Amino acid sequence: MDRIYIRDLALRCMIGVFPEERREKQDVVINVVLECDHRPAARSDRLEDAVDYKALKKKIVALVESSQFYLVETLAERIAAACLANPKVEQATVTVDKPGALRFARSVGVEITRGRAG
Question: Which residues are catalytic?
């Protein structure tokens, strides 16, 4: 399967379970790997036959910046669902990092992989 990578998308959102985490938006870093078949787009050289990753990035930005989830796991799940809403995407791996979430650690991250059922 072919892949598209969206790397190090730095965004801010309300995320966290503790009151001090819910006062202000926090930084998150999103990485997405989309598995799809590039052959139709490669043959036609037309955007209509490809996954429009710019449009998908805008969808992810809107989702993340308006979210108010408590768990990073929930945010990752919703991003994967948004990616899979595109019928050309067969599988999405989403990593959400929360920099500074733990003392002495650069970041804490969650990674999920979701695909089409059936």
Answer: 98
